[in-house]
Specification:
Structural class: mainly alpha
Largest sheet: 2 strands, antiparallel
Strand order of the largest sheet: 1-2
CATH architecture: Orthogonal Bundle
Helix content: over 70%
Number of domains: 1
Distance between the termini: 53 Å
CATH class: Mainly Alpha
Radius of gyration: 19 Å
Number of strands: 4
Strand content: under 5%
Number of helices: 11
Length: 295
């Protein structure tokens, strides 16, 4: 058997894959958080609950309407995004001129309500959600077996993250959106409906979380805590990458997933804390994060 650093190659590459999978979810969640904070200046503590909603909507579409995985990848983010529009218009739009603490407390309360309602309705036990037939099985790479679905999760997350970054940073729509968040009166003077853009921005960040929830459903099963389990780590990822930095969130999410996965091989006792150790070290030398803007 091939050995690397004294460890079997299948073990190392298996942990690398697990790290990339976790990193994919970290990147998707932190990307949505970075968009909402960077554009709207809101610390969205409901993000994990909205990730959970994406998984439950996908499960409900299959259970009650017979709508499978592939349509759910589009329908679930759309439905949760529409729910995000409701949240933004009714609650969050009232907080833009207030201190960050108010937004954090409001979204934390919303998260507790959403998760509590799901727990009361469906219980805490995991609900099964099968991998689609096209993505079942594994591919023999010689040094390890690669589960097709897990490879798909990593690939889909990378493509979506890259597409979102290109949309915001490299298109006229993204430029208009960034301008609207920095100087809304000036942009509105050009006839652009800034409140609508802000609402759609929040809905887009929420939809990214829901898409991640659909991807996660066949791997972790559907439970009310599926998103909450990621949330604290994801906030650490956002801080390390730089609050509001889209590129920082993507790169840091995937990187820290790999670091966490490799730590489980070389020093398992530190696997649950390595992300926070990295956060402390980064903040000592770069208080604004790796990609954040210094004042």
């Amino acid at each position: 058997m091939l050995m690397i650093f004294g460890y079997p190659a299948p073990l190392l590459f298996g942990q690398l894959l697990l790290g990339l999978i976790n990193g994919a979810f970290y990147a998707l969640l932190s990307l949505g958080l970075a968009i909402i904070f960077g554009m709207l200046n809101i610390v969205n503590f409901a993000h994990g609950a909205l990730f959970t909603m994406g998984a439950f909507v996908a499960w409900g579409l299959l259970q009650y309407f017979g709508i499978g995985y592939w349509p759910a990848l589009l329908i679930a983010p759309l439905l949760v995004g529409l729910f995000g529009v409701l949240l933004e218009r009714v609650f969050i739009s009232r907080l833009y001129r207030l201190d960050h603490l108010y937004g954090l407390l409001l979204t934390f309360g919303l998260a507790l309500i959403i998760e509590g309602l799901l727990r009361n309705e469906f219980g805490s036990a995991g609900l099964p959600y099968d991998i689609p037939a096209q993505l079942q099985g594994a591919v023999n790479l010689g040094f390890m077996f690669l589960p097709i679905y897990r490879g798909w999760v990593v690939l889909a997350s990378m493509v979506l993250c890259l597409g979102t970054w290109l949309l915001i940073e490299k298109t006229s729509l993204g430029a208009t959106l960034r301008a609207a968040t920095e100087n809304a009166p000036l942009v509105q003077a050009f006839g652009i409906n800034v409140p609508r853009m802000i609402t759609l921005t929040y809905a887009g960040g929420v939809a990214l979380a829901a898409f991640g929830g659909v991807l996660a459903a066949p791997i972790y099963s559907v439970t009310p805590d599926i998103g909450g389990g990621f949330l604290i780590t994801v906030f650490a990822v956002v801080v390390i990458g730089g609050m509001g930095s889209i590129l920082g969130s993507i790169l840091t999410g995937f990187s820290l997933g790999v670091v966490e996965g490799m730590t489980k091989v070389f020093y398992p006792q530190a696997a649950s804390t390595v992300v926070f150790v990295v956060m402390v070290i980064v903040l000592l030398f770069r208080p604004a994060g790796l990609f954040g803007r210094t004042a």
